[in-house]
Each structure stands twice: as structure tokens, then as C-alpha cells.
Known about the structure:
193 residues
Amino acid sequence: LREENKEFFKNNVGLRIGNLGSIARVKMGNLNDLEGAQKDLQEMELELKSASATAREPEFVNIWLAGFEWTKGVESRSRGRFAEAVAYFRGAADRYQRYADNLERLTKQYKYNDQKEPILNARDFLLLDAGNALRWMGRAVEAETQPKQLLTDQINRSARPANIYLTASTLALTLMNQGRWADAEKVQKRAEE
Length: 193
């Protein structure tokens, strides 16, 4: 990092927390380094405790906690603890939704620019993660309901076509896992239109 970026990074707790979460998720997902990721999670948790005590806006802490819960969900999933992962993913998704609901106030009050759709996209990925974990647990009805509800929401808010396609494909896979081949084919064909 260049010197001016080092100072910015040192003073931006949200960026540090997000970066630690990203590094931990890469270690778990791509490198299968659960122990290294655990150290990053511990450091992330310490940063969160410190930030929570000094943050001027609870919603900033809320969104940092969302990233932490997302990372904990990935860790739980990596360790085969799917019910725990679902709880973390859903908790993080709720935090992203809360942040999105408060975004207009935050951008006015703190004079920064943020967009609602990328925040909702992150929430969507968390809900897909939760649905996948439910599918791996054999909880077929919940695994099917999650992407159906998400798909309805994405269509209603005119989400990016790529995100709608991913959700529809996840739903089709869930239906295939239930042996509902014809339904899965209909969903997948509709998604490709």
C-alpha cells in the first residue's frame, strides 16, 4: 500500500473489518485454510468490539456485524455445521436489509454516497447461501421457499438479470434435488428467457 492509503486504512475501521472478512472467506473457500481464517475472525471480532464502543452511528456497526456474521456462516458451512450457517446467513441478511432500509437517512445525515441495490444484492447472496445450506441439510420445503421468495422480491424490484438468473438456477437445482425434473426444467428455461 502507498503511504497515504496506509493511513486511510488505519483510520477506517469499517474497511479493516470488511477486509478481514474478505480474507477469511477466501482462506476458507479457496484455500481451505480454516485455521488461518479462524485467526482473522478473532481479529475481526476484536475490531468489532472496539468499533462498537466508539461508533457514532449504530447502523455502521450493524453493517460491520453483517459482514462478520456472513464470514461466520461461511466458516460454519465449511465445517459442516449447516444449521449454524443458516442462522448466521439469515442474521446477516436481516442486517443488510436493515441497513438498506436506513440508507436514505444515512446518506443525508453523513453526506456519503451509497446505493441500495448493491446492499440488497449482498443480502440476496446471503439468502441463497442459507437456502443452499438448508438443501444440504435435507430441509427441502424451506430450501425451496427461500429462493422462491427471493426471486419474487428480485423481480418486483427489477434486480439485475444476472442475479435473477442465479436465484432461478438455485431454485431449479433445489427442485432437481427433490426429483422434480419437469418443474426444474420450467424454472431454468424461464430464467434463460
